[in-house]
Amino acid sequence: MTVVLGIESTAHTFGVGIATERGILVNVNDTYTPPQGVGIHPRVAADHHVEVGPRLIREALSRAGLSINDVDAIAFSMGPGLGPALRVGATLARALAIRFRKPLVPVHHGIAHVEVARWAVGARDPLVLLVSGGHTMVIAHSGDSYGVFGETIDMAVGNAIDYFARSVGLPNPGVPHVEECASRGSRYIPLPYIVKGQDVSFSGLVTEALRLVRKGEPLPDVCLSLIETAYSMLGEVVERGLALTGKRELVVAGGVARSRRLREVMGYIAREFNATLGIVPQEYAGDNGGMIALTGLLAYLSGVVVDPTEAMTKQRWRLDEVPTPWFGKEPWFR
Predict the structure, then answer these.
(1) Are 259 and 285 in contact (CB under 8 A)?
(2) CATH code for the part of the protein at 125-283
(3) Vertex 37 angle, CA 32 and 43, to 5°
(4) C or N: which end of the chain has fewer Cβ atoms within 10 Å?
């Protein structure tokens, strides 16, 4: 069996995973939570990663009953993400690769979200809604890479809802607390609904929602309106994506896939199009080391490696720029 150790460090989570052809063996993570009302500061997150990183690597190997010598390759999240945080994971990965003479495998963070979701739900060729703090896009595989059929033109949906939550004094993380507040709402207030072709925009939605709060509208009603508008926008582009591609599998990946309301909306759409709905399990929804190890395994088996002395992180790195030579040849589908 091929063994790959993966390191995730794109934002507030430092994670370590171990994967083989059978899937993820170990997934250990430690997340930095910023103070109430404050977003993620890149350098503070990086300091957190420096502190917990070596311990989590040792813990992952211990849980798997392996030593570093049993590992065939080291994978790391090369981007996109917060520069200081990315560099911590990359530095540790490069050090391990050089010290123990292991191949180094670069992984795109967004593709890792997609691949761990496909693996977890058994989806072979789905339309994917990728929703997180840093990603909002509708994608499907086309040719030798994933193609984007729609995306946000400004804020990711997770970032938009988190920003609103911080601004109105709701706790971290923002999405579940905004949704809990929305459950107490009784009135829908029209908000900017911005869908441009297959793309969406959330900045005007958040700006108007905050204006309503300052105006004195009840917070639960504003939360209800914000959630319903945002998820309706996503629903519209997913519907058109299914109609355009003819896919019969719909997968929801990324941290916002934990949302109960979003799951309901996607369930309605999947039934409408007679598609099988797969939602990434809670353990693999947010940023995690397991998804980097799993995608690193796929990449390594396809010959994707990088010289450790030349490996650079990419804060900005589009998902549709990354070749996926493993697609359709995943070992768990054989």
Answers:
(1) no
(2) 3.30.420.40
(3) 40
(4) C
